[in-house]
Design brief:
Elements: E1 5-8, H1 19-33, E2 38-41, H2 51-59, E3 62-69, E4 75-82, E5 88-92, H3 94-97, H4 115-125, E6 131-135, H5 146-151, E7 155-157, E8 176-178, E9 189-193, H6 206-210, H7 218-239, H8 251-263, E10 266-268, H9 270-277, H10 280-283, E11 289-297, H11 306-316, E12 321-328, E13 340-342, H12 349-354, H13 356-371
Parallel strand pairs: 1-2, 1-11, 5-6, 6-9, 9-10, 11-12, 12-13
Antiparallel strand pairs: 3-4, 4-5, 7-8
Helix pairs in contact: 1-13, 9-11
Length: 376
């Protein structure tokens, strides 16, 4: 029989292992069961931390580094990537403005800034790329993208004409905006991986829903929401179109709104964007099996999330699809999978999280052995 062709396309097991490592572990497990299998590893990500590495690895692109400012304006080196097509660059705001860059006692969305994200976008745009993919998961900020816009040449001024300080809280004193977008960004198409549907303001807005995890007390949430309301008033007058009620405008502390306003970016499904960037639909044509996976598969996995999108794409291509999961949650049955192997079966959660790759590898081997070698 011909050697089976297997596409290994997981996302990260969050808090445990990134997508590149997970794909490699699944690949090793499958090879132990099917030594002659032709395995293609296509690690995936949803726009948050790890997106750059996953897309660069999947497309045989290259990693680059830029000197930028972190959320508290300290200089750091942040990675971005040029994909294998040579014309698409990818950045993730988490690399410059992400929560993991701060200690727990440093988290304060009143003062954290997206300036570094703007600097990272500029670095990628000056590479000659015609398209820029921006992942906006994992932010430490709540400044509506004002810091990012400063990197492009905009100024945010109070009634006396003084520049506002960085962060979300000073936006309460915003009176006007001066400037225009850096010309290096004008010809670049910008697509934003955004699975969050929150609007900018109110009970389901950026401050109320995501502020607490960034260090905001209930009083600070109220302060930040009012400040973003003022910001929306001034920005909408400046750009001449509404942004506050656009689904996704509240993503990443309002960075979604800033990207819409200052870059005329397109907010798209992270899953759709990532699968398109790696050419997933073409890659799986004629494959014998797709193996996906994530840290926890549950009902949400099947509704607009990356794992569900992989399963749907495999079904459209008439390719069987199975999964390796860290754990299973309620409603995982919504994903019509041929088989799911749970890596943590019989293993305490703490141990599984601390050393996941051998468990993932073993689960992939079990999956392949149970399925047997069946080719088209």
């Amino acid at each position: 029989m011909p050697a089976p062709r297997v596409i290994v396309a997981p996302q990260s097991f969050k808090g445990s292992a990134d997508a590149v490592a997970v794909a490699a572990a699944i690949g090793r497990g499958v090879r132990r069961a099917w030594p002659d299998a032709h395995i293609e590893e296509v690690p995936l990500a949803d726009g948050g931390e790890g997106t750059v590495h996953a897309l660069v690895r999947a497309t045989k692109g290259t990693l680059r580094t830029a000197r930028v400012h972190d959320p508290l304006l300290r200089e750091i080196d942040a990675e971005w990537g040029l994909l294998g097509d040579g014309t698409t660059a990818v950045v993730e705001m988490a690399a410059a403005s992400g929560l993991p860059l701060l200690r727990a006692d440093e988290r304060d969305p009143r003062i954290t800034s997206t300036l570094g994200t703007g600097e990272l976008i500029l670095a990628a745009a000056t590479s000659g790329a015609h398209r820029l993919v921006v992942g906006i998961g994992g932010s430490a900020t709540n400044d509506g993208g004002a810091g990012m816009a400063r990197a492009f040449g905009y100024r945010f001024l109070d009634r006396e004409g003084h520049d506002l300080s960085e962060g979300g809280a000073p936006l309460a004193h915003l009176a006007r905006i001066d400037g225009q977008t850096d010309p290096r960004l004008v010809r670049v198409r910008i697509d934003v991986a955004c699975d969050v549907r929150n609007t900018l303001l109110g009970p389901q807005g950026a401050s109320a829903v995501y502020g607490p995890q960034k260090g905001a007390s209930p009083e600070v949430v109220h302060e930040l929401d009012a400040a973003l309301g003022r910001y929306a008033d001034v920005v909408e007058r400046f750009v001449g179109r509404p942004i506050r009620d656009v689904p996704g405008a509240g993503a990443a502390g309002g960075l979604g709104a800033g990207l819409l306003a200052f870059l005329d970016a397109r907010l798209v499904s992270g899953a759709e964007l990532v699968l398109g960037a790696v050419g997933f639909a073409k890659r799986i044509v004629g494959a014998d099996l797709v193996i996906t996976g994530e840290g926890r598969i549950d009902r949400q996995s099947g509704f607009g999330k990356l794992t569900g999108a992989v399963v749907d794409a495999a079904h459209r291509a008439n390719v069987p699809v199975a999964a390796v999961a860290g754990s299973l949650g309620r409603g995982h049955e919504v994903l019509t999978l041929e088989r799911i192997e749970v890596a943590s079966d019989g293993v305490p959660a703490a141990r599984a999280m601390a050393d996941p790759l051998p468990l993932i590898e073993a689960a992939a081997e079990r999956l392949a052995k149970a399925r047997g070698v069946r080719t088209h």
